[in-house]
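Course assignment 3, question 2. Fill in each field.
Student: A.L.
Task: Predict the tertiary structure for the chain below.
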Amino acid sequence: MSEYLRWQLEEGETLLWQGRPAPRCYTFRHWLQASIGTFIFIASSFWLMVGIQLIKAHNYSWWLIVVPVLLVVGSFFVGPGQLIFARLRWEKIFYALSDQRLLVRKRLFGNKTDHYPLENFRRYRTKKYGKQLVSLRLSFSQCAPVVLECLEYPDRLLRHLPDEK
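Answer field:
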């Protein structure tokens, strides 16, 4: 049985919908930032290699490589590292909707599930990535908005949500 099918439901609670983000959409949703970071990562890696060669061959000061090292590390996390970490996070993200609440499991470590009672639901906003691919921002009273990212066929979830208040 798949992990995202195991939900702790209350007595008399009925599961209406369950899903998870589309993997490619979730991984590449910040593609422009990742592209810029990857370009800076490659350029600063080249700068670092040149600096190392100058230190070895011509006895330049080791301070020559401090800035490129910082740029390589920082741009890795903004560029290619971001894609790797997003893909690792995707494996732990699951969503479900019952007749009483929205359940969200987004924990990289542990299986803690966040619960959002449907009686507190106010409205939703969408961010489109494609014809049938969106991220939903669900607003609830008494808590911060919840974002369900990169859902395929969101109408399957939206038809079960209560009317906006």
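Instructor remarks: The chain has a mean pLDDT of 90. The longest strand covers residues 121-130.
Grade: pending
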